[in-house]
Each structure stands twice: as C-alpha cells, then as structure tokens.
Design brief:
single chain; N-utilizing Substance Protein B Homolog, Chain A; two-stranded antiparallel ribbon; about 65% helix
C-alpha cells in the first residue's frame, strides 16, 4: 500500500524537518520516517474500519429511535438496507482488520458526534435514498453503495478530516489544498507576514490554490476505494487487505533514500551547482528546491534500477505542490541537466 509516491513524499517531509532542526540525529530521522509510514498505513486500515463502525452505530441509532415513546411509523419499522449491508458485514469479519483494530489506540465509537454527523449526511443524500428504496437487492448493490458513499460523502468531509488531523500529525491533509503566492521576499516564520503576502498576492492576481491528488492522505483514500472494489461476494475482503509495503524492495527504498540523502546529500551540490544559471546561485535556492534537487541526485546515484526520467517526473510533481509556481520547470531543467552530466561522465549507467 505504501507506494513510492508516498515514500518520496514522506522522505521529503522528514528530511526537511531534519535539516531545519540541526539537533535531530540520523537515527531519529529514520525513526521518524518509519513512524510516518506506519501511521500512513494505520490510516488506511482505520478508514476501512469506519464502514463497519458506522454500521454498528447506525444499528444502535435505529434501535433508540424504535424505542422512543412517540416513535413514528418509520421509526418503528426502519429501513434496514444499510444496517444489513453485506460488504460492511464482510469487513467486520475480516481477520486482518479486526485483529489490527483490537490493538489500535483509537476507536471510532469514542466520537459519537462525528459518527452522527456522517450518518446524517448519508441519510439525507440522494445516493442513500436510491439505495434504500431500490427494488433490487444484491451484494453488488451493497458494494457499489459504500464505494460511492465513501467517494462522494465521506472522503472529503471537513469534520472527518479535522478529526484525523487532531489525532495524528501524519494524518493532516496538508496537501489537499496548497496555497501559493509569488512574492519577491518569501516570509520565513511570521504568520502575520505570510497572511499579508497571501493577501497581496490575491489582490495582484498571483494567488492560486491547487488541489493535490497524490498527497499522503489522498493516496490512502484512493487505496481504500481500490480495496473495496477488489472485494467479492464469495470471499469479501479475505486476502484483499493490502500489506504495508508491496515488497521488501520498497521498504528498503524508503530507508536507503533517506539515509543516503542525509549522509551525502550536501556533497551532491557539486553536481548541481555547475548547471545552475547565473540567476540561480546556490545562495538564492529555496530550501525546498535544493532538497528536491538533492533527492533527485540521490536517486540517480544510488538506485540504478530507477530510470532517470521516472526520478525527474516524481520530483517535478512534488515541486509543483511544495514550492513556488516556477519550481517545477526549474527542478525539471536542473535534474535533466545533472542526469545528462552524470551519464556523460560515466558516474551512472541507466536509462
């Protein structure tokens, strides 16, 4: 489940924090990376568990409504389609998920306000009305409902995202919307300065908000939907819960990339500086751009199986959402020139 897009993003975040906190040791940085990747995987499982947890809570809600002194006819005989959803039942019986949830520290059941909010949103949706009152009753319809409900109603819910952000810094949807401002002098720390710069950018027409589809939280949600699609009527989710890493190679990639960057990344400026134009001296490089370039060179030198164009494309995408509006083209040009330089000098042999 933790693919290389997620790995590069987490390595970038951890390395950036490391380089701005000089007291952080290499072993501490590696531990931070390991924790960030584990929490990313936990989020995948936790969101899967939301479906059976919502279902169990809805069952309790319907029972409370039924027992009301002045219950309406609809409350006395509620529609049970959602409570009896077969995909939700299969999730609740998936050994990998139930075992993980039993040992996890958070419980959806502890936040009834959030569960009520999500259920209210579902009940009032056209999607639910069509599902609850459809003449056909099939496992495929049950699966389709939760796929669409998660995609349309749950994944982008603001209260849910606030809940996730409150419980883990690694669950912040920090890349869902990235604000960018083109300013001559980038504010370094003061929030007031930043807001002033953003306001000035809005007035000048240089402000932009960009939806990022491959931020960590967004990628996790996408993997959840893929997992639900892989369920079958006969087997449910048995054997379909994705492992944390596809294989040992990806796990080693994460550790090796961070370690080589932090141990040798500073030396790699010798390959970067010669291809910088006069207007882009090392001193003028934004910290994030310099880090993206060093990450690219790290991959060039230490991962012979990864083609250079793949490396370049990945860090260009990160530059689009972590740096300025012009950084993507800049990172692309510099890494392309460095790759050619390394190939010509025989320091790397790859596509």
């Amino acid at each position: 489940m933790i693919n290389r897009v997620l790995i590069r993003t987490r390595v970038l975040q951890v390395a950036y924090a490391h380089l701005h906190r000089g007291e952080l040791s290499l072993s501490a940085a590696e531990q931070d990376l390991e924790l960030s990747l584990q929490r990313t995987y936990d989020l995948y499982l936790y969101l899967l568990q939301l479906i059976p947890s919502l279902t169990d809570f809805y069952r309790e809600v319907l029972e409370v409504r039924r027992r009301k002194h002045l219950a309406t006819q609809a409350e006395r005989t509620p529609n049970m389609r959602l409570v009896e959803n077969r995909l939700a039942a299969q999730l609740s019986e998936t050994p990998e998920l139930t075992a993980w949830y039993a040992g996890f520290g958070l419980r959806w059941e502890d936040d009834e306000a959030l569960l009520r909010h999500l259920l209210r949103k579902i009940e009032h949706s056209e999607l639910y009305q069509d599902y609850a009152h459809a003449r056909s009753d099939s496992w495929a319809a049950d699966q389709a409902f939760w796929l669409e409900a998660f995609h349309q109603l749950i994944a982008g819910d603001e209260l849910l995202n606030e809940y996730l952000e409150a419980h883990s810094i690694y669950w912040e949807d920090d890349l869902a919307v990235v604000e960018k401002a083109e300013v001559e002098e980038r504010p370094h720390s003061e929030e007031e300065q930043l807001q002033q710069a953003l306001q000035a950018a809005r007035e000048a027409g240089t402000y932009q908000a960009v939806r990022l589809e491959n931020g960590p939280v967004e990628v996790v949600k996408d993997f959840l939907e893929k997992t639900l699609r892989r369920a079958t009527e006969e087997e449910g989710l048995q054997g379909q819960i994705l492992p944390m890493f596809r294989d040992e190679e990806d796990e080693l990639f994460a550790r090796h990339l961070l370690r080589q960057l932090l141990m040798k990344g500073g030396d790699y400026m010798q390959f970067i500086e010669p291809v910088l134009s006069e207007g882009w001296s090392t001193e003028r490089l934004a910290d994030i751009d310099a880090l993206l370039l060093r990450l690219g060179v790290t991959e060039f030198l230490h991962f012979p199986a990864i083609p250079t164009h793949i490396t370049i494309n990945e860090y260009v995408e990160l530059a689009k959402h972590y740096s300025t509006a012009h950084s993507a083209a800049f990172v692309n040009g510099v890494l392309d020139a460095v790759a050619r330089q390394l190939k010509d000098s025989g320091k790397i042999i790859k596509q």
